[in-house]
Please model this.
Amino acid sequence: MRSVKVAKDLVAASATPMVLGILAEDASYGYAILRRINELSGGELDWTEGLLYPLLHRLERLGYVESSWQSVTGERRRKYYRITDKGLAELAEQRRQWDTVVDVLKEIWLGLGDRGPLTAIPLEGRA
Amino acid sequence: MTAREDQDKLEAQFAQWRQYVQRRRELLPSDADELEDHLRGSVDELVAAGLSPDEAFLVAVKRMGSLDELSREFAREHSERLWKQLVLTGETGSPVADTRSRRDLWAMVICAAGAVASVKAPALFGLSFEDDSSFYARNFTLFALPWLAAFLAWRRQARRPLIGILVALFALGAVAGNAYPLADKSQSVVVTSIHLPIALWLVVGLAYVADDWRSSRRRMDFIRFTGEWFIYFVLMALGGGVLSAFLFNTFKAIGIVPEEFISHWLLPCGATAAVVVAGWLVEAKQSVVENIAPVLTRLFTPLFTAALLAFLVAVVWTSHGIDVEREALILFDLLLVVVLGLLLYSLSARDPLAPPGLFDKLQLALVVSALAIDVLVLLEIAGRITDEYGSTPNRAAALGENVILLVNLAWSAWLLLTFIRRRTPFAALERWQTGYLPVYAAWAWIVVLVFPPLFSYV
Model:
């Protein structure tokens, strides 16, 4: 598989709905969230700790998530993050926006698909 | 290597890494915990994949990226952490420091309450602010400063002999302020009211340096303390002024004039309490907030130098002698005090090992121009002390101060000059200033104790 490097801006913009989405499934901690993102993207999305933890702290400040130090039996004490009602509402809102964006992009790209591969556009345009 | 040894080594590496993280102001201890957990998760996974703990640690740390980058990202979310905040009680991260700062707070509250009680106590014996203003003028520092000294002595766990000396000196101050039969309007009352605070403040200094009173470093710390204390006190006084103005005007708007409450309770109680609170603030913030006095001296040294030089040029240009009125000597004493203050607080913030620079030359210019002005004033005044008024406590005190400050500044100028020419180390200048402190104390006590009988209680 060819490696796709996702642009920094796009990573930053999509990070919030991704984290909220993962936390909507279940409470989790930093390392597990990072692993999950890695798995889901097949290693394409390379988040750093410098991205994740300040983001989690910001979401906490905004009241979308709440955190607590817990020790699950047999494991280390960890800082778990849990999504709040406000966070769920924000997630729904973000989802609506992303759906719109993705829908539009799909429409455009499907239309292009009829006219052949993307690389051929300039040539066709000239013809 | 056994698994046990591996584990110990890994723990040592984690401990070292934690130290690096904790040095970053952007990262709180709780962030360090969180990041350490992350690192451990990473290491566990790599070990499970077959790496040795050593290798796993290296890879995991490498993956986390540089601490610089990480702190930068944290700083974007937590920009408030870059502003040093004064944590008054608790939450410093270490329980020992927390208990200590809480105990300090309580000691301060007790001392401030004691100061407030002492300023109001004489009222119980029928001494009112209006009728006995001279009593309060002579004694106002005696109400507050012993409590500040008590707070400092408590904080430094002063030994019994020192506490005994402190008590004896404050008692001596009380005697000097009240035992002599001075008329309310006499000059000696004014002179005592000015010099007793100086003498007592240096007693506070004794409590500040505690058992280490010979140490030049500790004395310099006291000079720093004095500057910061003064600035905090002025700031609190400004706040108190705003509070009084609002209180007065809002109550006046509903027909109640709280004049008596403000002048009999708020002002005296607030001022005495502020003396202790300012001392506590300086102690609490010592390593948290940068000293402000040196910043002010940096700003004002060039401006004062320019002003004094302009004055000297004007004197020479117009060849107009300095008109020495009755109060003029006091004015020029104050000028010398300001120049000395500018010098002292620049010294207090200077790195003793740094080579002489432009600022040192500027200071030399400041001191020399102040000396030149003072010499002109002294020449003018030389004939006056024996004129028809004769010598009075006012003039004798002012002249004495002038001589003391002149000697100090003249020798400072000499030391500055030799320092700039790299003949003497900077420490000589510092030692001269700290060594001079007892001279001020001795003079203040002489004025307070000897002057009234010497001038037959005029």
